[in-house]
Amino acid sequence: MQEPLVLLPGMMCDGRLFASQIAAFSHERPVMVASLQGANSVAKLAEEVLSIAPPRFALAGLSMGGIVAMEIYRQAPERITRLALMDTNALSDPPENAAMRERQVKKALEGGLREVMRDELKPKYLAEGKNSSRILDLCMKMADALGSKVFADQSTAVQHRPDQCETLKHVQVPALVLCGSEDRLCPIERHELMHHLVAGSKLAVIPGAGHLPTLEQPELTNRRLMKWLKS
Questions:
Q1: Burial level of 124, CB count in 10 A (0-12/13-18/19+)?
Q2: How many helices (H) and strands (E) does the chain have?
Q3: pLDDT (tens digit, 9 = 90+) per residue, 102-157?
């Protein structure tokens, strides 16, 4: 049996974000999706994942999951056998985003989570494609399942996340930096930066995908993840 794989979902997503990856990889290795809830800081979320994760494991995170993955590597590099960062950002949140995030949190806690997701977040997620409506419906179902308190906590964690560029300079395991070619939330140049910071990393740009390539282009994404898992 190969080393376990721990997957970290993006903001307001759950294990359904990785349904194709679980199906593809669980026959050869244990696959675990860690929940990013119950804390409002990246450091605490990383600690909680480490408390339930195997002693050593491959780690892949998408979007907010990638942010937490970098912090996990910072806290416990000896436990990580390989690292995949997907559609994410190593930089801290720009100060000009604070007012927007705080307004979204206030609205969500007052009962407007669906409106925030529908009007402000979902339109930025995907590349145009025949499955867009189905994927966006799934995103809404995941957000509904998690609820406004998780949205508030995750928004706070993302807003106050640390810059991890220095962490990436010290990564010494096989690393993959992957993104959709049409990701508007975390554009390609952010991934090029991470790729240059992590010595020996591989950069994969998935055509026909936006911020959620695991759902938009699962076969292409799995192909790159499989190469990473076997590297």
A1: exposed
A2: 11, 6
A3: 999 999 999 999 999 988 877 788 888 778 899 999 999 999 999 999 999 999 99
Which neighbouring-strand residues pair with 31?
A: 5
pTM: 0.97
Cβ distance 6 to 72 under 8 Å? no
Which tokens sit at 212?
């959620």
Euclidean distance between CA atoms 150 and 46, whole angstroms: 16
Nearest CA among 100, 70, 14, 94 for reference residue 191: 70
Q: Who's near 104: CB < 8 A, 6+ residues apart?
A: 116, 120, 151, 155
Tokens 């999706």 appear where?
33
